[in-house]
Amino acid sequence: MTNDEKIGLLGGTFDPPHTGHLLIAEGVRDALQLDEVWFIPTYEAPHKQSSGTGVDSRLQMLKQAIKTNQNFYINDIEIERKGVSYTVDTVTLLREKHHDVQFHFIIGADIVEYLPHWHEIERLLDLVKFIGVGRPGYKMKTDYPIIEADVPLMDISSTDVRRRVKEGQTIKYLVPECVETYIYKRRLYEQK
């Protein structure tokens, strides 16, 4: 990697990965002229309750979702570590491995409001630039330095996708077709 390479980081459970994730990643990559966007699936998120979907299924869906974009990659650093991962620990390790890369952590406006509660936020601000993207119903108000990226807004959430599958509603166009096929083939999120 060259010393001026700019990498976007998009973390999440990706349970499942949906069209909104892809639109945000590509929109930020284009708006900020990032070289790549690395998707960082969590093993176990510190602030979310598990849906019960195994890490292998989440990883397979994410691989399928990004396979057509040559600028998207998966970094499984948090899966390899297992347990709860904090962003500050992940970014610290990434900086140790890639000292000359400028990392940009992509977050939605809903997360911008939550930044004061992040684990070691002050140290994290020294390690990474935050890129904020709008989300319907949220404002981008914060005292922290956030670079705002203007990307189209899509009100899609993994929680809603899971609910729709459980209730027998369509998820067509909310997730990539390959992810939809995987969900139905594996019978994920159905009523148990």
What does this structure look like?
It contains eight helices and six strands. It is of the alpha/beta class and 192 residues long. A six-stranded parallel beta sheet has the order 3-2-1-4-5-6, with helices on both faces. The protein is globular. The N and C termini lie far apart (47 Å).
Q: What's the number of structural domains?
A: 1
**Strand-and-helix sequence, N→C?**
EHEHEHHEHHEEHH
**Averaged pLDDT, please?**
90
Q: Quickly count the helices.
A: 8
The CATH C-level class name: Alpha Beta
The SS-based structural class is alpha/beta
Q: How large is the share of residues in beta strands?
A: 15-25%
Secondary structure tally: strands: 6
Q: What name does the CATH topology carry?
A: Rossmann fold
State the end-to-end distance: 47 Å
- The low-pLDDT segments are none
Q: Largest sheet, order of strands side by side?
A: 3-2-1-4-5-6
User: Can you tell me the CATH architecture?
Assistant: 3-Layer(aba) Sandwich
Major beta-sheet overview: 6 strands, parallel
Shape descriptor: globular
Radius of gyration: 16 Å
Q: What is the assigned CATH homologous superfamily?
A: HUPs
- Percent of residues in helices comes to 25-40%
Features:
single chain, 192 residues, alpha/beta, Rossmann fold, 8 helices
Element layout with pairings:
Layout: E1 6-12, H1 19-31, E2 36-41, H2 55-66, E3 72-74, H3 77-81, H4 87-97, E4 102-108, H5 109-112, H6 121-127, E5 129-133, E6 146-149, H7 158-166, H8 177-186
Parallel strand pairs: 1-2, 1-4, 2-3, 4-5, 5-6
Helix pairs in contact: 2-8, 4-6
